Amino acid sequence: MIDRWDRATADLDPPFAIVDVDAFDANLDDLVARAAGLPIRLATKSLRCRALIERAVDRPGVTGLMCYSLREALWHVGNSTGDDLLVGYPTVDRAALCDLTGDEDARAEVTLMVDSVEHLDLVDAAVGARHRELRVCLDLDAAWRPVRGVHVGARRSPVRTADEAARLARAVAARPGFRLVGLMAYEGQIAGVPDATGSRARDAAVRWMQRRSAAELAERRGAVVRAVREVADLEFVNGGGSGSVESTRADPSITEIAAGSALIGSTLFDGYTRMHPRPALAYALSVVRRPDDRTATLAGGGWVASGPAASSRLPSPVRTDLALTGTEGAGEVQTPVRGRDVPALGDRVWMRPAKAGELAEHLTAYHLVVGDRVVRTVPTYRGEGKAYG
To answer: Which residue range forms the structural domain that includes residue 356?
Structure first.
């Protein structure tokens, strides 16, 4: 794999990133197969590259986009990237809301996320209470709370119960200028937590938690969907993520699954029993120093993933005989790696990011590799002058 990447990019000077197209396509095929007939809504923040997003949505089984922000969704509408765009998080961007209400195509294609009446109030305040009809989706909190005071999962929506969801649905239905079309519940404690890290005790505890959380959520989400459908004719019920496809598809209330990171196969997804994506994204750094016989220092590369500060958020050398140092990790201006047979001055070291989409915030282009050739160079969001978070 490394030899093939080296041959494909021999005329390029690091830092740069490649996408292995064969691995990307294989991961996409595997994701669609895991969904077993349920459509995949592609999470764009896991790619942040329009060419890759377009490649994925061309695959049968992938329908619709889940965008990070409203401004990103509007950009995709303008580029005809997709015609069914769910904004995965509530927006308070007043200028973007004004653009949405003034664009007939965008109003038909974009669905806003809300979890409270206050979100409706904010929209009305931003664009005026007599605005044209906007599509909205309710965000249901999917975290597991087995006992009072224990919260396992993302802290998202204040809406947890069927009664709360129905109350909000009725508020949307009664509010001029809004139409309730969807419901979403993201089970991050299942989709985003590896269960095969090598620690037997930890992994057993995670699997125990995930089984019980999935059972509780299926029952609660089903009740919520039934209650909301008495108020509105929902077009979709969205759930899941790359790491929870199997348990999400087993919930009969679900009509589509959100996913994206599985296409990249970043290092956080090496530790799952349910999926084994191929590494599809890597970046090359140059060796610029040799402090001693077992250390090679790379230029830059401190592209650490978001989340809790931990070693799991660090990038990793593709060569398993090389490792970051515990004292420096991946640094802003230099990244030392150690091993028995370290590369020479001027050589390159390939790294894999911990998370799927965030590398695109540091580079303006990805080089698409097929076999041992670069077949195309495409801009990332940054390369197109876009920064959405």
So the answer is: 281-384
Give per-residue pLDDT as tens, 245-294: 999 999 999 999 999 999 999 999 999 999 999 999 999 999 999 999 99
**Do the domain assignments include residue 336?**
yes
Digit-coded pLDDT (tens) for 297-320:
999 999 999 988 889 899 999 999
Residue 332 lies in a domain: yes
Hey, what are 289's tokens? 């120093």
Q: Is 14 left (phi over 0), alpha (psi -120 to 50) or beta?
A: beta
What are the backbone angles phi and psi of residue 196, rounded to the nearest 5°? -145, 60
Do 34 and 245 meet the contact criterion of CB atoms below 8 Å apart? yes
215 and 334: one domain?
no
Which helix (H) or strand (E) element contains residue 383? none
DSSP symbol at 327:
T
Contact 369, 5 (CB under 8 A): yes
Which of 63, 39, 54 is CA-nearest to residue 257? 39
Token digits of residue 241: 């993520």
Residues 239 and 287 in one domain: no
Residue listed under structure tokens 């028995």: 340
CATH number of the CATH domain containing 115: 3.20.20.10
198 lies in some domain = yes
Q: Are 304 and 332 in contact (CB under 8 A)?
A: no
Same domain, 170 and 104: yes
DSSP per position, 105-158: HHHHHEEEEESSHHHHHHHHHHH-TTPPPEEEEEE----B-SSTT--BS----S
| Within-domain flag for 274 | no
Q: Which helix (H) or strand (E) holds 361?
A: none
